[in-house]
């Protein structure tokens, strides 16, 4: 039969320690009652019993004397050496990638006619094409298909130095020139152009040459001498 002991204070008889219950017993504090130890020291066991921790609201990480917090408890997603923990508690890649990206070279000499015509460079040998978005067999155009800012460039080298009355190396976007290098009344054997451009999901880029001399000239068919490329800029 349950009994109730009503006292205002319990002191151990020996004056050293007070023990409640015996091993195997359960000592319960009923709902609505408060155990106030705010003015005392609570010494927990080395292994804490299972608890939801829902009321632990002011834990100070500086009080962790040893050990580490598992990465699985720090944020959502998968932790690895290539990601970092963002302010919204998600694991994300550091910095981002400069992709889509490609570079294609000219594998054989290409004749550039003259005058009054723009000839597309037919760079047919891919050195790299991260997303498979460069057409190296028919249109010789790059369609990144990812919105962003891109650096696009082109180098054209001629078989021999040539005296040009008018020479233009251009990069086109959707059929219109957006980057242009123009030379008049000069002698040189190569030309380079490059710049930053905006790109929507359906934009495409091509490289063109215009020249006005006494006749056709040949562009060097060497992938290290004549090439067209581009890559996405991390912003």
How would you sum up this structure in a few lines?
By secondary structure, this protein is mostly beta strands.
What does this protein look like?
- The protein is 0% helix and 38% strand.
- The protein has 235 residues and is mostly beta strands.
- The strands form three sheets. Strands 3, 5, 6, 7, 8, 9 and 11 form a seven-stranded antiparallel beta sheet that branches.
- The chain has no helices and eleven strands.
- Strand 1 (83-85) and strand 2 form a beta hairpin.
- It has a domain at 101-232: Jelly Rolls, CATH 2.60.120.40.
Q: What descriptors fit this protein?
A:
single chain; 235 residues; mainly beta; Jelly Rolls; seven-stranded antiparallel sheet; two-stranded antiparallel sheet; 11 strands; rod-shaped
Question: How do the strands and helices of this protein lay out in sequence?
Answer:
Elements: E1 83-85, E2 91-93, E3 101-105, E4 110-112, E5 118-120, E6 125-129, E7 148-173, E8 176-199, E9 205-212, E10 217-219, E11 227-232
Antiparallel strand pairs: 1-2, 3-6, 3-11, 4-10, 5-9, 7-8, 7-9, 7-11
């Amino acid at each position: 039969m349950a009994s109730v002991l009503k006292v205002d204070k319990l002191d151990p008889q020996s004056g050293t320690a007070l023990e409640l219950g015996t091993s195997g017993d359960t000592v319960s504090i009923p709902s609505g009652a408060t155990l106030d130890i705010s003015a005392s020291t609570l010494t927990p066991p080395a292994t804490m019993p299972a608890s939801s921790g829902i009321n632990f609201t002011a834990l100070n990480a500086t009080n962790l004397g040893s050990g580490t917090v598992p990465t699985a408890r720090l944020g959502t997603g998968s932790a690895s050496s290539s990601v970092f923990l963002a302010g919204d508690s998600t694991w994300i890649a550091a910095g981002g990638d400069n992709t889509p990206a490609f570079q294609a070279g000219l594998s054989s000499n290409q004749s550039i006619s003259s005058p009054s015509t723009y000839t597309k460079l037919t760079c047919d040998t891919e050195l790299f094409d991260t997303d498979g978005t460069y057409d190296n067999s028919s249109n010789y155009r790059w369609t990144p298909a990812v919105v962003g800012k891109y650096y696009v460039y082109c180098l054209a080298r001629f078989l021999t130095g040539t005296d040009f009355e008018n020479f233009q190396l251009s990069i086109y976007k959707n059929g219109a020139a957006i980057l242009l290098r123009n030379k008049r009344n000069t002698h040189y054997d190569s030309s380079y152009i490059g710049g930053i451009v905006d790109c929507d999901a359906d934009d495409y880029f091509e490289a063109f040459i215009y020249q006005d001399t006494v006749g056709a000239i040949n562009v060097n068919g060497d992938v290290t001498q004549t090439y067209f490329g581009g890559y996405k800029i991390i912003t």
